[in-house]
Write a structure and sequence with these properties.
The structure is a single chain. The chain is mostly helical. The chain has helices at residues 9-33, 38-59, 68-92, 98-109, 116-146, 152-158, 176-186, 216-224, 235-239, 248-251, 254-264; strands spanning 230-231, 277-278. It has a two-stranded antiparallel ribbon. Helix 8 (216-224) packs across helix 11 (254-264). Bound molecules: heme C (HEC). The site of heme C has 29 residues, from helix 8, strand 1 and helix 9.
Amino acid sequence: MSAHAPKSWMQIIRWKLVAAVVAAVALWFVSGSLGFPRIFQWMYVSYAVLGLIIFVALDAPSPTPLMGWKAGLGIIVFYLICSAILVTAGTLLPQFDSKIEVAGIARKTVKYRLSDEQTASLMQRTKELSAKADELAAKLNQLQAAGAHLEVGSVEASAPAKPASAPAANLSGMDPVERGKLVFQDHECYNCHQIGGKKSKKRGPILENIGNLATEAQLKDKVFHPKAWHAKGFEKQAEGKDKMPEKFAEVMSEEELHALVTFLLTLKNTAADTPQPVFPPGYSVK
Ligand code: HEC
């Protein structure tokens, strides 16, 4: 900066403006391609503008000093301008909202919580089982007392009959469809599959109408052997890095699978965009 010839505003602004425009355009496109929401793109652009203002201010010719009441007024006006900028920016730009974060965390932890009803039914089940264990222990004692000469046939005859109405698939006594929804949560199918709505915004197909398109056996096969068949139009995804994981056969119990598929079979919204299953030639469920 030369002391003799103060720069004109044009000179001060020119290159900074060019740099700011380049930065703003780059920020807009880079943040856009990284999937930032529109409001964030504007926020980044506003940073470029802010940078421009700061660098122009640094280089600006010094104002003539204000004295007396004018100095006081100057401070007040400056304060008002800064406050106005802060308040405007604060209302326009996205803010951290603790409610949104808390709701997100609650959604993630929901699978670890049981409803009062579930807890009660689990307690009930525990009581029943421990009563049964006591009963069996008592039987064993009797048998031992009766001695080794007892015939095998009579042991069987005296064994307690299996209760006729105790579906193994119903551990917690829950409604199977409700249980299936939980399994869908527990195994994070929702990461790739949307339920609810008509079109999917996820990596995998929307499952809203799968109950009309596949049978129970086919669905079970798909979950445990994702390569067995695929969704029409998802040929690429069936191969790529977003393909359906093959771990479920190892990490999911038969009980869970049964409940999950019972739930999937209830999804019968014909208005939804669920793709048709495509079976390989000669396909049959193993
Ligand atoms: C990592 C992503 C991912 C996860 C997790 C995932 N899937 Fe998939 N799924 C896909 C993709 C991609 C397709 C489409 C390609 C294909 O059929 O293999 C698909 C296809 C399907 C289909 C066939 C849909 C149709 O319309 O034909 C069903 C049914 C299905 N998944 C159920 C499930 C269930 C149930 C779970 C949870 C246990 C699950 N998926 C977890 C990615 C996933």
